[in-house]
Specification:
This protein is an all-alpha fold. The protein has six helices and no strands. The chain has one domain (2-85). The protein is globular. α3 packs across α4 and α4 packs across α5 (62-69).
């Protein structure tokens, strides 16, 4: 997956600075990243370099990344990663209830 995935790297980041985004994300989330990878070490997917990119994108640009992902790979793979990471791929809907 790595070579194919990396061909689309710029698409995933549009006009953002990739290295800056990944560095910031890693500094904020290093412990959680390491914990998730150690828990899922039996799954070779979590040992691939692109896992950092995937986790960063589902954290910071979930909807955009999901739309690009489904053009390339089965959504079930991304759903599994998101669930292990502790997030949902569904849009977040905020409802405000006003009491009168």
């Amino acid at each position: 997956m790595t070579n194919e995935f990396m061909q689309y790297l710029q698409t995933f980041y549009a006009d953002e600075n990739i290295m800056e985004k990944l560095s910031e994300f890693y500094l904020k989330s290093a412990e959680k990243i390491e914990r998730v990878i150690s828990l899922r070490g039996d799954n070779v997917f979590y040992t691939q370099p692109e896992i950092l990119i995937i986790l960063e994108r589902i954290t910071n640009k979930k909807i955009l990344f999901k739309s690009k992902w489904i053009e390339l790979y089965p959504i079930e793979l991304l759903e599994e990663i998101a669930n292990v990471w502790g997030t949902s791929l569904e849009k977040t809907l905020f409802i405000i209830i006003i009491q009168t």
